[in-house]
Amino acid sequence: MTIEDNIQKLLDKREEAYSAGGEKRIESQRAKGKYTARERIHLLLDEGSFEEYDMFATHHSNEFGLDKQQFLTDGVITGHGTIDGRIVYVFSQDFTILGGSLSESYAKKICKIMDQALKVGAPVIGINDSGGARIQEGVKSLAGYAEIFQRNIMASGVIPQLSAILGPCAGGAVYSPALTDFILMNKENAYMFVTGPKVAKTVTGEDITTEELGGADVHGKKSGVAHFISEDEEEGFLILRKLLSFLPQNNMEDPITTDCEDPIDRKEDLLNEIIPDTNTKPYNVKDVIYAIIDYSEFLEVQRNYAANIVCGFAKFNGMPVGIVANQPNFLAGVLDINASRKAARFVRFCDGFNIPIITLVDVPGFLPGSAQEYGGIIIHGAKLLYAYGEATVPKITITLRKSYGGAHDVMGSKQLRGDINYAWPSAEIAVMGPEGAVEILEGKNLKSIENPEEKEKYILEKEAAYRDKFANPFEAASYGFIDDVIEPRNTRFRIIRALKVLATKKDVNPPKKHSNIPL
Fold this sequence. Notes:
CATH superfamily of the largest domain: 2-enoyl-CoA Hydratase, Chain A, domain 1
CATH class of the largest domain: Alpha Beta
Number of strands: 17
Oligomer: single chain
Radius of gyration: 27 Å
Strand content: 15-25%
Largest sheet: 8 strands, mixed
Structural class: alpha/beta
Number of helices: 20
CATH topology of the largest domain: 2-enoyl-CoA Hydratase, Chain A, domain 1
Distance between the termini: 63 Å
CATH architecture of the largest domain: Alpha-Beta Complex
Shape: elongated
């Protein structure tokens, strides 16, 4: 063969690979409102940056007629490219080829880019749209999944791992995304579950639809499996690109600080009035967040799950931070099982990737009741406590209003190595609220007062005395537990200055194989 013949053969092979599972299957994919595997990569990455690996890979199985169904790429597109000029590795499952099912060769392609991403220290993004394990390959496909899982585990805390679920993701396939740092689900076509509706019907008698069992709404609101929900695929890719702008390439680097024209000393007078006069009246803590961050740009994580705590990424003077804030607008901002788990995982991610943590506190305590106790609030609350105590990144805590009981300790307190702890003048830091405290402290005296009016007057006097003592931040400040009481409208400036001071902070945990976080 001549050189021209060989080049033409190469071009023909590439054209065959680009045709995926054929025009009919591509049209079927598009009819569902889904892009092809290659189109998704090009939407996600910077234009013209994608370098593909293993385009000519095929499976090597002859069982159950597979010898007659061989396609180049074998159902997954792999390689690397850039997002905002920064290297990322990516794989995109191709549902048009054997339903995107995973084979031994398919798994090896994914493992190859994961290994290389770990070597060079770059994020991995997985685009999932697959029918699961390729049944015809039996145990080889199961082994392929396990090889991927092992790499997810080894890469955890070393490089960011992101998963986009844009179609089916069921059975063993769900565990690779579950091992990654963030999961995005597309509202239109995505679903995730370990066992599907048919199995559920057979085993438990439960009659349930695919959407009800594992759709985006379910995992965005009820289970908390999904961190982001997109209305369509285009929005999903924009969210992933935005998310990466807050993250470093790996755990040995710091996030990239960008230029910022939002004034450092911008004062927000509305913050001086945002806390209601009545300490039980709610307000929206997101209004505080939007007021103090750069350009009011906040990327919230798990927005619809455990809404009593708010987590997300923002920037202060161009520096990426993670924000954790109690939400008085939902369940009074109380900590419960779901909120503790949500915030603990977020804090640990930030710490693992050198992202400072800003904590805004307005917490009345932990949610009481048998449902919480039976569900293990002790263990789950301890996760958040552990996450803050373990974290070595800069930690800045601002107490806005209530900070009661064990929840005060948990939320980035000075004793959990909070670096700089501020409080607004409205801060109340105590073991409990005035009503509960008076009931305990004055129980005997109250029993001795028979006249209801006298008893009510006595209670009000004691509550007022308790408020005078603790319904302000100065008692805690007198012990150094609060570094300064600040005017609310100056919060942005004080945080930025604190971040600058803490930029060279060094904090070291004792040598260990790994910690034993309360799971």
